[in-house]
Design goal:
Number of strands of chain A: 17
CATH architecture of the largest domain in chain A: Alpha-Beta Barrel
Distance between the termini of chain A: 10 Å
Shape of chain A: globular
CATH topology of the largest domain in chain A: TIM Barrel
Number of helices of chain A: 15
Helix content of chain A: 25-40%
Number of domains of chain A: 2
CATH class of the largest domain in chain A: Alpha Beta
Structural class of chain A: alpha/beta
Radius of gyration of chain A: 22 Å
Strand content of chain A: 15-25%
Largest sheet of chain A: 9 strands, parallel
Oligomer: homodimer
């Protein structure tokens, strides 16, 4: 099943059209156009169904999926620190501000070496595709060339990606060995990188995008932030940064700017429809209102919430406000590279927030009531929700959406998922697939109908 | 590598000898005796090492593990509801007391049908072995015969197991369709089941054990609990039950008995060295002292803590007190059947408890300080800690311990784990293996040196 352009696929598909609508369509017929987009979806109960299936079968362009396999939309990971890939699964023992200085900045500094960048980024992009991440939003490092290599690897292996060269020009927070050589250089490099990606876009429509990427306010000077804000205004590239991530980070910005991250980012001109704010754990109601008014977006990273954020992002509250949200693994702040794991941990974290965790506190004061999110909502955020944040038509099986998809096999040897057609309802089957699938159940990944 | 008795194994091994001591021994030589137990462990730096390796190689009894493979002790799962296997990954939306009545009792009642028991239990035992669970502690159902079938499946597929016929005789809490027909029958069935297991033991030394299994105090009459306590005193079988699991359950016992679960269980004669208490989220300091004095044990079930327990078990506090603790998946209250996942979630839950989860609460009052557990501690609890709870010499690579083990392959196609011998320390490698391994990395499982 290398290339599915100009073919029709017959089999069970699962997808979310909105936060609370999830579908399992058995024996659906998905038609893929020459551009890698879905041109038609024909359900079993439609009059034309049998004729259409016959038509594609006769023309030998029908691909049939097995009965124990399910097509799902590919995942969008809205927050990845690409250079932290070698650190995945370790270095989880100290708070954010110490972790950066002790483990993370020394590792990221190594990407001055282009060979190291080639080696790590190739492994990263391939691994994430295997894990079902068809669209990835990456922080690179401060290094122009290494970050270009990351963009090139995404093109090479066929992953849809947003990539940014990180800006860190603040002497008081960034070590000598890992800091932009000057504010001017940081800005120039950002512009050069953006142009480099524009060149790549010419032959890779819809595949690669640049992001203006101030690491976060602590790492950047006000001058850099204002100038990046101007650049963001002039261009239509993405903006990505961290926002109100931990007690330390949130307080640092309050002390330095006299206002919250959100208010400060707005003033710097960095809150736009194309802005992705990672974390947001300590957003106030007012912050959320500003983000909504600016149509900016949030990348919820539940696993790193447990390790570095000092709290769980109040996702339910943000959803109720109507904010635009997707999920992020936060590699390597979260010790899993899988958006599927992240979706599960979104559910777990929301339940921990709702019930609370401390048994020595009375029930009434223990948690934040009405905080849970369901498996349907987590799945939506992992698929269509994340793609919507980027305004990319992907993450669902709808007409004119890219065929970015994964094939889940419930019968692989080591991670068999028991579905019982007599006991389990369709909704049960969907929930089991989400809760019990592991990486080995993902047996194929397509981006734009091309197997990757 | 079907049977490793009377062989020596050469390769990298990882194991915990105590809560904070974890070892990666590269190219170690593990010698297995005819009884499936480890008879010797010879490290590279020992004088006799090369001679011993040569000896086993010449006699063609040397088994060599590949460089990208690691031997780990098998896992002990201290809390599994075997009949809930078909429910794994679903039915997570309502509180414990409603969940039992709406989903769980109707499912468990189906095990009156022996064919259903055969079908489900065979699938369960095989799946858990694949997931690396070499020793399993099972709640069955109220059904004598179905629970015998469960014990038989453990023998058939080679899993070390503790199995109990569940007692539920309380009319006010158990529905008509799923309740022991009388208190007398519940006790008689428990005795009959225990004798049945004694018979099985004759040809299966160290493989199968019975447990007296009052579901929990709410499900049982005082009479049944007292009588089971007497039975526990007369015999040396295990005792398993739930203890202070959720706000509702904890309060129910306080209201009915005028004392905590722990105090009541002690009074019923059910707190022994062979007792496994699942959950324990709302144990008081005094409860913990009683449990310690009685040498009873706790099965910590972090995933179901998030869904059904209203809080996280204060594991660090219990460890500091010196309680005996292992881990439980709590199938199907926790939506994973993997003890490896449970170990990871032990870490996640402990971090959530330490930092707290609610961002609208001030930092000082948000969490329970000094609650985190490390990857070393979680690994110990998943392996030797759990086996120690059962007084079974397993869960570590030490002399006279059973060779109950799993083989982790870091290079399997879909879940490759990147270890970098130049960057990662031995401890980093261990941590990455624990945090990043998934079920597909477990390519072989042995119980008593027999591949299962």
């Amino acid at each position: 099943m290398k290339k599915l352009t100009n073919k029709a696929i017959l089999g069970s598909i699962i997808f979310s059209s909105s936060l609370n609508n999830i579908y399992l369509e058995k024996n659906a017929l998905l038609v893929i156009g020459p551009n890698g987009k879905i041109s038609d979806l024909i359900k079993r109960n439609e009059d034309r169904y049998h004729n259409e299936v016959r038509k594609y079968r006769y023309s030998q362009s029908l691909v049939e999926i097995k009965g124990h396999q399910y097509l799902l939309p590919g995942f969008t990971d809205l927050h990845i620190h690409a250079p932290q890939w070698p650190q995945l699964g370790k270095a989880l023992d100290i708070p954010l501000e110490k972790w950066l200085q002790k483990y993370t900045f020394p590792l990221e500094a190594k990407f001055k070496d282009e060979n190291f960048a080639h080696f790590v980024y190739e492994d990263l992009v391939r691994s994430l595709l295997r894990a079902g991440t068809t669209t990835a939003v990456y922080f690179g490092t401060i290094h122009q060339r290494a970050t270009q290599i990351l963009a090139e690897k995404c093109i090479k292996f066929g992953q849809r990606a947003v990539v940014g060269k990180v800006v860190m020009d603040n002497h008081s927070q960034c070590p000598d060995y890992y800091r932009d050589s000057s504010t001017r250089d940081a800005l120039d490099d950002t512009e050069t990188f953006t142009k480099f990606v524009e060149e790549l876009q010419k032959n890779n429509e819809g595949k690669i995008y640049a992001a203006i990427t101030p690491r976060f306010i602590p790492s950047c000077t006000n001058e850099a932030l204002y100038e990046l804000g101007k650049l963001a205004k002039q261009s239509n590239v993405f903006v990505q940064t961290h926002c109100s991530e931990s007690d330390w980070e949130h307080q640092h910005v309050l002390d330095r700017c006299g206002k919250t991250d959100t208010e400060a980012l707005q003033e710097f001109g960095l809150l736009k429809k194309s802005t992705i704010l990672a974390h947001g754990n300590f957003l106030s109601e007012q912050d959320m209102d500003i983000i909504k008014a600016q149509q900016a977006n949030i990348a919820h990273c539940p696993l790193s919430n447990f390790f570095f954020s000092d709290a769980v992002f109040p996702l339910r509250r943000a959803l109720r406000k109507g904010l635009s949200i997707g999920l992020g693994t936060d590699i390597a702040g979260g010790p899993s590279c899988s958006v599927l794991d992240t979706a599960k941990n979104t559910i777990f974290a929301s339940r921990a927030l709702e019930s609370g965790v401390n048994p020595f506190v009375q029930r009434e004061g223990r948690g934040l009531s009405n905080s849970r999110v369901s498996f349907k909502e987590a799945f939506y955020l992992a698929t269509k929700g994340g793609a919507q944040v980027l305004s990319i038509p992907a993450g669902s099986f709808e007409k004119d959406f890219y065929f970015d998809a994964i094939l889940i096999d419930t019968e692989v040897e080591h991670s068999r998922i028991s579905l019982d057609k007599f006991i389990d309802s369709d909704e049960d089957m969907i929930q089991k697939l989400i809760m019990l699938s592991s990486r080995s159940n993902i047996v194929e990944t397509w981006v734009g109908a091309v197997s990757v």
